[in-house]
Amino acid sequence: MKRLTSILMTCALLCFLVLTGCNSSQGAKETASNQSTGENKAQGTKMKLVEEGTLVFASSGLYKPFNFKKDGQLTGFDVDIGNELAKRMGLKPKAVTNPWETIIQGLKGNKYDAIIGSMSITPERAAQVDFTDPYYISGAQIFVAESNNTIKSKEDLKDKVIGVVQSSTFKVLAEKYTKKIKSFPSDVYALQDLPPGRLDAVITDKMVGINAMNEQHLKIKPVGELLYEDKIGMAVNKGNTELLKQMNKALADMIADGTYEKISMKWFNRNILK
């Protein structure tokens, strides 16, 4: 009798252990399933990157001083901005080049994560890509000789001799103020005629003029407000919302703590977001 009782107790214990094991196994499966679902949800909010842990960003590499090659290395204002953004986002920066005429197609083809290459924000481009907040401002600017104190705004351009690059929209702007317009094959040639007094003013892109001041040490200066504004942004693929969000946050933090201005001063001796 005792032997039978012992056998029955042993069987009951084995059944209990089997049932407990099944429940534990099922619980583990459910836990794993829940964790997997959670990870998938998390992945849905992660940045979509071409290379894990890396921010790959593109420019033409031919737009000095914004992006160009020096001693075989890609450098410039755009590159410094991209490197700093990546660092603040906890990513490794990787600057690459792509021909400008196909740079948006390269982004759509996932050759890189972002375009940081001095791209103007336009409705046509915004239909294809998502833009960050502007990271610098350009546009049509009046430049005069450094010694010129008579022209301080667009109102002072009336009947003055104005230089513009030929076949440009700047000529249309100049025609609003004077008939004395001289056309040049390049903006730089026009700007070079300001210090000797052969021109009263030049209307050109703000950054072209500033670059001439820094690179060629021309004794010229910008005056008045922009005749029209050109906002420059960084582009990411449509729908890559988390990447866009983090780039905007990193940019805002750079501006707030003064890092942006340091980079801008390095290349232009001024804050080009203002």
What fraction strand?
25-35%
Low-pLDDT runs of 5+ residues are 1-44
CATH architecture verdict of the largest domain: 3-Layer(aba) Sandwich
CA distance, first residue to last residue:
98 Å
- Name given to the CATH homologous superfamily of the largest domain: Periplasmic binding protein-like II
Rg from Cα: 30 Å
How many beta-strand segments?
12
Largest sheet: 9 strands, mixed
> Pairing-aware structural class of the strands and helices?
alpha/beta
What is the CATH fold-level name of the largest domain?
D-Maltodextrin-Binding Protein, domain 2
Overall, the morphology is elongated
Helical percent range? Answer: 40-55%
At the first level of CATH, the class of the largest domain is Alpha Beta
| Overall number of domains | 2
Keywords: Signal
GO cellular component, one term: membrane
Pfam families: SBP_bac_3
Organism: Aneurinibacillus thermoaerophilus
Summarize the structure in words.
It is a single chain. The protein is of the alpha/beta class and 274 residues long. It is built from nine helices and twelve strands. The chain folds into two domains: 54-137 and 232-268, 3-Layer(aba) Sandwich (D-Maltodextrin-Binding Protein, domain 2); 138-230, 3-Layer(aba) Sandwich (D-Maltodextrin-Binding Protein, domain 2), CATH 3.40.190.10. Helices cover 42% and strands 26% of the residues. Strands 1, 5, 6, 7, 8, 9, 10, 11 and 12 form a nine-stranded mixed beta sheet that branches. The protein has a three-stranded antiparallel beta sheet with strand order 2-3-4. Strand 3 (67-70) and strand 4 (73-75) form a beta hairpin. The longest helix is centred in the N-terminal third of the chain and has 44 residues, at 2-45.
